[in-house]
Amino acid sequence: MKQSNRGEGIAKVAKGPLGNRTRVTKADTAQKALKLKRLKALLNSRDDALQKQGSSKRAGVGGITVESSQQREKLAPASESASTQMSALQRKMKQKLKGARFRWINETMYTTTGEKSFEMVQKDPGIFEEYHQGFAAQVDKWPINPLDVFIEGLRGRAHLVVADMGCGEARLAAAVGKQHTIHSFDLVAHNKRITACNIANVPLCNDSVDLVVFCLALMGTDFIVFVREANRILRQNGELKIAEVVSRISDMSAFVEALEEQGFELICKDTTNKMFVLLELKKTGPCPTSFSTRPDLLKPCLYKRR
Ligand SMILES: C[S@@+](CC[C@H](N)C(=O)[O-])C[C@H]1O[C@@H](n2cnc3c(N)ncnc32)[C@H](O)[C@@H]1O
After folding, report:
1. pLDDT, average across residues 168-191
2. Where in the cell is it found (predicted)?
3. What is the mean pLDDT of residues 55-82?
């Protein structure tokens, strides 16, 4: 039969379940069109509802819902910046906490005895890490590090036995340990070069060392006891090298005098740097049996909140 009008008469010839050709009537087509119209209306009304919720928009006709790129553009920057802001805030808070913790450890070590500091870090060795991270951040800001001055001073010299008291991470031994014998002491053995101890009592024999270094390490209120320990291990005429923060010393003469009282003689005082003073002393004899600790001679070196 000739199909004059596809939309009206016999619209289509479809295969039946048994493969027979089946006639599709005008009424069938109208019913299908109606069904399709209803389905489209249903889908459109669902889109409207979803758009109102602001959640997603239907793409295509399969009932698949996806976010439109416009929606993503609108939403992404807001949510990304929120998460960036959160992590920036979290980072700032974390830095502040780290700084506060460093300042607390630092202050504790400057206001207590070596023995108490030793007990504190032995109980919680993580304290050493926290302290040294904070200390390294401070050192980064200094125009010079006095430890570098000591390292350079040792480079050109004949073999020496050296005790680095309060060595930190034992950078002195790492730098000149092939040339010299360096004994490195600190509260925690951060690496294999270091022996953990209180520098008031180091495991070295009397008169066994040529040179003792205290680079910013006279931290305890009983620092005089550390100096006496240096005297014990130094041979006669052995060298004592001290670097200290200038602002810790309110009376330089009284400080030097107190050192000399422990069996030393001042050889050189370098005050050319505004931040640090470098002292060189020579052992002239054993230290006296009676002494006072004189914590008043060295103020704690407290770092500012940033
Ligand atoms: C300011 S840091 C200097 C570290 C190193 N000398 C430097 O210049 O890089 C002081 C060091 O002395 C150590 N220290 C302070 N009191 C100590 C004590 N009683 N016995 C052993 N080490 C001590 C601290 O643990 C710290 O590592």
Report:
1. 97
2. Nucleus, Nucleolus
3. 42
Structural domains present in the chain: 109-297 (3.40.50.150)
User: How far is CA 51 from each of CA 38, 39, 56, 57, 61, rounded to the nearest angstrom?
Assistant: 20, 18, 6, 6, 16
Does 186 sit in the ligand 1 pocket, CB within 6 Å?
yes
Q: Does ligand 1 have an atom closer than 6 angstroms to the CB of 109?
A: yes
Which of 245, 246, 260 lies closest to 291, judged by CA? 260
User: Which residue's CA is minimally distant from atom 23 of ligand 1?
Assistant: 166
Which DSSP category does 288 fall into? Answer: P
Helix (H) or strand (E) holding 194: strand 194-196
Q: Is 217 in the pocket of ligand 1 (CB under 6 A)?
A: yes
Per-residue DSSP letter, 246? G
The structure's pTM equals 0.74
Do the bridges between strand 234-245 and strand 209-215 make them parallel or antiparallel, or are there none, so unpaired?
parallel
Q: What is the pLDDT of residue 89?
A: 86
Residue 288, beta-bridge partner list: none
Q: Which helix (H) or strand (E) holds 140?
A: none
168: CA distance to ligand 1 center in Å?
5
**How sure is the predictor about 28, in pLDDT bands with cuts at 50, 70 and 90?**
low
Q: Is 147 close to ligand 1, i.e. is its CB under 6 Å away? A: yes
Is residue 96 over pLDDT 70? yes
Beta pairing class for 209-215 and 276-283: unpaired
Can you give the length of the chain in residues?
306
For 216-275, strand residue ranges (E) read: 234-245, 264-270
